[in-house]
Amino acid sequence: DGGITQSPKYLFRKEGQNVTLSCEQNLNHDAMYWYRQDPGQGLRLIYYSQIVNDFQKGDIAEGYSVSREKKESFPLTVTSAQKNPTAFYLCASSIGAGAAGEQFFGPGTRLTVL
Amino acid sequence: SQQGEEDPQALSIQEGENATMNCSYKTSINNLQWYRQNSGRGLVHLILIRSNEREKHSGRLRVTLDTSKKSSSLLITASRAADTASYFCATYGNNNDMRFGAGTRLTVKP
To answer: How are strands ordered across the β-sheet holding B19-24?
Structure first.
């Protein structure tokens, strides 16, 4: 999956708990992205980061938070404020600003709220 | 909101036939890309077409782009059972953001 790893593959959460999804890349890419995918649907952009210590909200950022302290890491926290978090979460990276934007995806994390 | 909308939502064809998927989008773009997703997996980049290009080929793939109509099409020729997957168009904007459509689920019957 192009040098991007996501962990865990499956994650179960009780209502009211925060959980953090890991995304690491060794491609030396500046830009990283988080998407949510619901069954039979396309990808919706949660957050993206173009450079270390900077990130922007996507279309569905409410109930999620991110950090970008290192170039290779872009963890996503699903907070208790996210009312319907059960979904498939995909992380991606790309070279960054000035490039064409081809994205490389991780294998995904499937989050289920019990 | 999602930028691209694919048509049809689902497509079923016989091996050897051609498959055509269409994508429409709403705002100005830097480029448009097509991705493939096998069930439960991450997406894989297939082909990219820049906003100043009209047609691009890669193997059995042909992509067209009409910026005046804000639409693109992906043609897969001589389809194989292994082409069975979901296909997504994605628009890359001037803010380095990417927006995906809802996808077309392609089934190629052997």
So the answer is: B5-7, B19-24, B71-76, B61-66, B55-58
CB–CB contact A108 B2 (8 Å) = no
In the numeric block, the tokens 């059960």 are attached to A86
Q: What angle do CA B30, B36, B39 make, to 5 degrees?
A: 140
Least confident of A44-48, B37-41, B71-75, B81-85: B37-41
Nearest CA-CA distance, residue A20 and chain B, Å: 19
Does the beta carbon of A85 lie under 8 angstroms from any beta carbon of chain B? no
Task: Enumerate the residues of chain B whose CB falls inside 8 A of the CB of residue A36.
Answer: none
Q: A7: number of CA atoms within 13 Å, CB side?
A: 4
- Looking up tokens 């389809």 gives B79
Which tens digit of pLDDT belongs to each residue from B54-64? Answer: 999 999 999 99
Tokens for A109, please give them: 């994390």
C-alpha–C-alpha distance, residues A106 and B78, integer Å: 29
Q: What's the pLDDT score for residue A16? A: 87
**Residues B81-108, mean pLDDT to the nearest whole number:** 91
Which residue in A30, A43, A59, A95 has the most chain B C-beta atoms within 10 A of its own C-beta, making it the best mutation to test that interface? A43
The Cα A104–Cα A109 span in angstroms is 15
